[in-house]
Amino acid sequence: xGLASSSSADDLLPGRAPGRRFVVYFGAGDPASxxxxxxxxxxxxxxxxxxxxxxxxxxxxxxxxxxxxxGLRRLPAVxxxxxxxxxxxxxxxxxxxxxxxxxxASSQRRRAYEDDDL
Length: 118
Fold this sequence. Notes:
Layout: H1 6-10, E1 21-26, H2 35-46, E2 53-58, H3 64-70, E3 77-82, E4 85-90, H4 95-117
C-alpha cells in the first residue's frame, strides 16, 4: 500500500471517485505509537485486500482535512470509504479489525449485487 499522494487523498472525498471503494489507513508513521502498535499497523497495511478495495495510506500531516471530514478522534485508524462516506471504522490495527472490515465490505458487496438484480 503506498502513501497517498494529494490526488489519491482527494479521491476519498465525496464525488471524487464514484463507484470506487477504498480501505484506508490513517496515521502513517504516527510517532505516538509504541513499537508493538507500529508493528501491528505495518502488518495491517501489508495485508491482502479484495480486488475491489483500493488500499490507500494517508499521512494526515499532508492531508489534515481528511481527519475533520471523517471525524477521526485518534490515530491510527483504518476504514472503508466509498464515495466520500465512511462505511466502517476501526481504531485498531489488529487481525480482528481487519476481519471486521472485510466482513463489512463483503456484506456491502452482496447487497450491491442483490440491488442490481431488482
